[in-house]
Amino acid sequence: MRYRGEVFLEDCSHVLGICESSGFFYPEEVEIAVELVHERLKSGTESGYFFLFAEYEPGVILGYTCYGPIACTQGSFDLYWIVVGKAYQNQGIGRGLLAETEKVVSALGGRKIYIETSSRELYLPTQGFYTHCGYSKEAILADFYAPGDSKIIYVKDLST
To answer: By three-state DSSP, how is residue 109 classified?
Structure first.
């Protein structure tokens, strides 16, 4: 497996397939994921969206992250997406992607990474994953996404 930060037009279909296969996202969320790839292709780094793809071989994408600096902060980054295709989940690919993304963010001057996720039961393994990877629960915004579906914000300090 190797990691790739370059973004190509065919990554639009890769992101679509990975997000749909994961079983975690609503159709409108998948559309947004693909839109971010388009935005990166159109505007480059000025878009504020950076990607890291985990490839088994060129064209065989196992998962990806999308991240970027948070405007008006000094060294704070958001991890917008971390998704591993259904067939490749629970094989350490997500941990590898996250660790590699943390290295890249740190090299870009990042001090902290923030991740948000849902409180729905479907996301309990995701919450455990973030904790296992050294992220701490920073905030809970009750009923953020919908009644009974809160936003949980995790953070990791890369400078420690």
So the answer is: coil
| pLDDT tens track for 43-99 | 999 999 999 999 988 888 999 999 999 999 999 999 999 999 999 999 999 999 999
According to DSSP, the β-strands at 76-84 and 60-69 are antiparallel
CA 60 to chain centre: 18
pTM above 0.90, yes or no: yes
d(CA 50, CA 125): 25
* Cβ atoms of residues 85 and 77 within 8 Å: no
Calculate ∠ Cα 59-110-116, nearest 5°: 70
| 29 to 19, 24, 25, 32, 101: CA distances (angstroms) | 9, 9, 6, 5, 21
pLDDT digits (tens, 9 = 90+) for 16-37: 999 999 988 999 999 999 999 9
The residue ranges of every structural domain in the chain are: 2-157
What CATH superfamily is the domain 2-157? Gcn5-related N-acetyltransferase (GNAT) (3.40.630.30)
